[in-house]
Specification:
The chain is α+β, with helices and mostly antiparallel strands. It is built from eleven helices and 15 strands. It is globular, with a radius of gyration of 21 Å. GO terms for molecular function: hydrolase activity.
């Protein structure tokens, strides 16, 4: 009798698993999947399996082509449901993340803190040295590492070159939210704290751990990561799993949860360099206007996102166990943007037609 029960359970377990291309069992469609480090190995799942409206997929693709996109990738439970490349782009082509790469910097900062190399509540000068800005010393000393993570340093955000002469005082740290490139000083904080270059520390702690490709381009105006679409998706998958990759917690969940929560009371739609949907109001780069309502009304309210200039996007939606990647040129070349744009809401209308 015991043998019968054992073999019945074993048969049930095997029958509930799908098969990989090589015939070996894989996790069922509703369990989380992490791709191997071999970029060519990534499980897929058909949209029809999820009950999606396949008749709306072509309209989504047509919209993306019209909006100058280079790639779209949608994961559910880590598996690829849609992977499309446009306008000569391929799975092996690298493209710039622009400000979506800020989330890579935030993650690396959290790892450095969990390793005891820094404390985000300490003043930035502890790692950057005194007079790293052109602010009065008393005002400079108000700036913590956390202020760099939350866009609340109080510097003049109209000057994009991150050089000392441009880092001038507008308001006390913590009293004004303004989107600017001063966040790039976090790479110097991490380099100082770890006694390594930022890129080598990032490669060791993030890139190599989750099998990303790509490289950093460090400049006076922008610090930009470049990678393939699949590597962007790998980071999005880690973000969906609150900093965990397969069985390893890359960044502790407590810090990651802080990153995707309102980080200050000025712009509730901003965490630690992550954009947050579902809040009562939001601000955008280059303005001090407070807009009422959700950041992206058509998107799920629990979505958090990495948003970069010219509409580079990582959308993470925990309620749907979904990650969506969009890379490309600006959707509206006549009105390029630094982060959130009207394109997001238009794109989500098309996505909703497919997934709902």
């Amino acid at each position: 009798m015991r043998s019968f029960i054992f073999f019945a359970l074993l048969s049930l377990s095997v029958s509930s698993c799908s098969k990989k291309d090589d015939g070996t069992p894989s996790a069922s469609s509703d369990s989380m999947y992490f791709p191997s480090h071999a970029n060519s190995t990534w499980e897929t799942i058909a949209p029809s399996t999820l009950g999606w409206n396949q008749n709306a997929i072509q309209a989504l693709k047509d919209f993306l082509i019209q909006k100058n996109s280079k790639s779209l990738m949608i994961l559910v439970n880590g598996k690829i449901v849609i992977e499309e490349y446009f306008n000569g782009h391929t799975a092996n082509t690298s493209w710039e993340w622009n400000s979506a790469g800020k989330t890579l910097v935030a993650t690396t900062t959290g790892i450095a803190q969990q390793e005891g190399l820094l404390n985000i509540n300490n003043k930035a000068a502890d790692y950057l040295g005194t007079q790293w800005t052109s602010m009065p010393l008393a005002k400079e000393n108000l700036i913590s590492v956390k202020h760099l993570l939350t866009m609340t340093t109080g510097n003049d955000d109209t000057k994009q070159y991150v050089v000392k002469s441009n880092l001038t005082y507008v308001a006390d740290a913590g009293t004004r939210w303004a989107y600017s490139n001063i966040f790039q000083k976090l790479t110097d904080v991490i380099a100082s704290a770890s006694n390594k270059t930022f890129e080598s520390y990032f490669n060791e702690k993030v890139k190599n751990k989750i099998g990303m490709d790509g490289f950093w381009n460090f400049g006076a105006i922008f610090t930009i990561y470049h990678s393939t679409t699949r590597s962007m998706a790998r980071f999005g998958l880690m973000a969906l799993n609150k900093g965990k990759w397969n069985n390893e917690q890359i960044i502790n969940e407590a810090f990651f949860n802080e990153s995707i929560s309102t980080s200050q009371n000025i712009n509730p739609s901003y965490g630690y360099l992550w954009w947050l949907n579902g809040k009562t109001n939001f601000m955008i780069p280059g303005e001090q206007t407070i807009y009422q309502g959700y950041l992206v009304p058509n998107a799920p309210i629990d979505m958090y996102a990495a948003m970069g200039a010219n509409d580079q996007r990582i959308y993470v939606i925990p309620s749907k166990k979904m990650v969506i990647i969009r890379m490309g040129n600006a959707a509206n070349p006549a009105n390029p943007n630094f982060a959130v744009s009207g394109f997001d809401n238009e794109l989500w209308a098309k996505i909703n037609a497919v997934i709902n």
